[in-house]
Design a protein that fits this description.
Helix content is 71%, strand content 4%. The chain is mainly alpha-helical. It has one domain (20-177). A two-stranded antiparallel ribbon has the order 1-2. Helix 4 packs antiparallel against helix 5, helix 4 runs antiparallel to helix 8 (138-158) and helix 5 (69-88) packs antiparallel against helix 7.
């Protein structure tokens, strides 16, 4: 019996590389939309955080080794887990007071500081935005957009005032990226 035939048929694991990525991304998008709607309806960011897991995990699977892309995708998962822990245990920690400054230069961006529960989804958003610009694949960009939008939902639910700053940060970043800086 051919080893390659028996190897594929006897394995109980799913080979994600052989599945249709467009179908998976559509399913992940639907899952994220359900999570976002549940979070907005219940005013609880935990829904979207849990419903972002498929997007983050598939992002890790799809992201190829690159200068910062694979690290960014793995770091997304770490931050997502940490944010859930911070919310479950209601951890309050003012990063601006700790560092003695209102913003910090992190992963190539000057990020506004505040409560750690708001900063974590902001960092998720920044890392996913980095992946949008630094990955080549359509599906990794798609997943990154889902994560960025999900992160904005979390920020909005935790701190609506900080949400305005996050949107301003995104818009300024996009204008800077495309040469329309103000």
């Amino acid at each position: 019996m051919d080893a390659s035939k028996s190897k594929g048929s006897s394995s109980g694991l799913i080979n994600f590389q052989s599945l249709n990525p467009a179908s998976i991304c559509i399913l992940i998008t639907i899952i994220a939309i359900i999570g976002a709607l549940a979070s907005l309806a219940s005013h609880n960011p935990m829904w979207i955080l849990f419903f972002l897991f498929p997007a983050v995990i598939y992002e890790i699977i799809r992201t190829q080794e690159g200068a910062s892309t694979k690290f960014s995708s793995i770091f997304l998962l770490i931050i997502l887990v940490l944010e859930i822990i911070l919310l479950i245990f209601n951890v309050n920690f003012d990063l601006a007071s700790f560092f003695g400054t209102q913003e910090k230069y992190i992963v190539g961006y000057s990020l506004p500081l505040g409560d750690i529960k708001t900063f974590a989804p902001l960092l998720l958003m920044v890392l996913s935005t980095i992946l949008i610009f630094r990955t080549r694949g359509t599906y990794t960009k798609w997943l990154s957009i889902i994560i960025a939008v999900g992160s904005l939902v979390v920020i909005f639910l935790i701190n609506p005032l900080f949400f305005q700053e996050a949107v301003k940060f995104i818009v300024n970043g996009l204008f800077d990226r495309f040469g329309y800086g103000f």
